[in-house]
Amino acid sequence: STTTLKTSDHLRHVESMSTLPSGAGPISRLNAVILGESLASEEDHLVFPSEAFSMQAHVPSPQKYLETYARSIEDPAGFWSEMASGFFWKERWGPQVYAENLDIRKGKINIEWFKGGITNLCYNCLDRIIESGDGDKIAIFWEGNEPGFDGTLTYKQLLARVCQLANWLKDVGVRKGDAVVIYLPMLMELPISMLACSRIGAVHSVVFAGFSAESLAQRIMDCKPKVVITCNAVRRGSKIIYLKDIVDAALAESARNGNPLDVCLTYENESAMKRESTKWQEGRDIWWQDVVPKHPTTCAVEWVDAEDPLFLLYTSGSTGKPKGVLHTTGGYMVYTATTFKYAFDYKPSDVYWCTADCGWITGHSYVTYGPLLNGATAVVFEGAPNYPDAGRCWDIVDKFKVSIFYTAPTLVRSLMREGDQYVTRYSRKSLRVLGSVGEPINPSAWRWYFNVVGESRCPISDTWWQTETGGFMITPLPGAWPQKPGSATFPFFGVQPVIVDEKGAEIEGECSGYLCVKSSWPSAFRTLYGDHERYEATYFSAFPGYYFTGDGCTRDKDGYYWLTGRVDDVINVSGHRIGTAEVESALVSHPQCAEAAVVGVEHEVKGQGIYAFVTLVESVLYSEDLRRSLILTVRNQIGAFAAPDKIHWAPGLPKTRSGKIMRRILRKIASRQLDELGDTSTLADPSVVDELIKLVDC
Ligand code: 6R9
């Protein structure tokens, strides 16, 4: 069906572009263009891959991309079956490769891939690689917080460790389908725990170890795990974080609410804290080191259906309650592995490092599963990227000869501020591909990353995707395309993005609007845990017929996609998703806070900062102590990363007559665009705006 090709807008544009000779334009000419010069328009700036890079790439040219993309859209079943056939399936999937209904008007939203196929993700990550002869290859280079503190695991060693834990989990009664909450820092035990769960068909739910006791308790109460896995403490930079204390508080809270937990497996992280000083609840708490190593190093695999759940990961939405995003096994496996291979142009000789924490989706798909499924060697880093100084990342790159480096724009910007000398002090000659994720990367950070870190030789894969999508959706394929700094370029194979207007009508060509996706892809999330209605309402109702991403997007004249940020009440702080409603509900839980409205503001390093307008209860006076206490409340209820950057005292909030807070006005005040407040006449009391402006710098 060539109609797909004709209606698919970006294809038409890039087809005309693809008449450019592959690798046209030497890099040196481009550097002259990009260094320092301000461009009339970002979309006119093309950065070409070197011919040498393109020649060795999996996708060496626009033509090759176009061919493969067209095939993936015309025949998704055939395309994805072929991708899936590289994995081990105990039984092949049924005659129908996938089934989907993304149209709420036609009934229940439903997505299935490879149903009836019987497999196991852990088996495919480890046993399959070992059987192929790579058992002695390094799976994980682990680097501790303190330089010089490190370790390695080969594929065989990793499998043995995973099996020991899997056996212990079975011993304490964890069965297929049971939930296990993992609250660990970036120790090797974190990917080991994830893999052990998937080996026995248990559903892991990793909670980022920066979340507070209350957030952890909320997640525990929602998914009711059989076991929680944690460690006593961790060093991060120069700080020590006492994780076990946080877990104790969360478990107490959960027990108070009628959800007692029987088993808390605790890893003794000796370098941060000795077991003697760890608070302990006999009968419930068990030291990892006392039980896990005693278990056999082999463990039979629990074969599961492709559509059996693999993990739950909670993420923020526009209401206060976090959403348990559910991913299943088969499609997730095929998609994360395929995207990893193509978007990073992965080759078996690469050493790959993703700086994300396994507490986020990036750590699930591209620290643990995607790399291992490809038999890759990956770095797992426990520490902070600026400790002991801003050169740490490049020290690690040189130490392990990292060739693919994947991080977030916020880190790029913070290192950029520290100065080039921290980068150029190190060789970095092993690097060949760079990656970016979490938020739009601004063109100036892109250029610094490209020119200084990558010495103008490494393509940047700016991967746009979400917890919900499981894997990359819009991403450059290194070597295939000329890049544009700040654009995530084109959709991955099988992905059909569309841009719609407020009414949900698809817009063609050069345009801006809401980013939706019009057909399913293998690693799409299948539901929100225990709340399929919320899944349908949040993602499939705003624009019937499509999956709505929550992001705004522009497509330029050449068909390149430019993500412009969230259009809902979600703020993106240093790549972490935070719902404004979550912060607001934490603030109003403070006894002296009557009302709160939170908006995102531009922040030089974090991308967005959190700006909170706070109304106090009658007769309470503003003070510095109160400001601190409000911020502390948010830290305690959500986590330090959600602490507001600014508290703005608000005698009243701008509301419509129906009582809806006009965030549009608050955003303008927060970003000091005071002459662009727009129409305030629909407000119930327009004078509150003047009051707010008076208090701008209090
Ligand atoms: C993977 C991840 C998802 C939201 C997403 C968007 C933003 C992520 C981006 C990006 C522009 C990129 N986002 N990657 N925006 N360019 N390369 O971050 O998942 O934590 O669920 O956040 O992050 O706004 O909607 P998640």
From TrEMBL:
Residues 582-660 form the AMP-binding enzyme C-terminal domain. Its EC number is 6.2.1.1. GO terms for molecular function: acetate-CoA ligase activity; AMP binding; ATP binding. The keyword Ligase applies. Pathway: Phytoalexin biosynthesis; 3,4',5-trihydroxystilbene biosynthesis; 3,4',5-trihydroxystilbene from trans-4-coumarate: step 1/2. One of its GO terms (biological process) is acetyl-CoA biosynthetic process from acetate. NCBIfam families: Ac_CoA_lig_AcsA, PRK00174.1. This is acetate--CoA ligase. It comes from Coffea arabica.
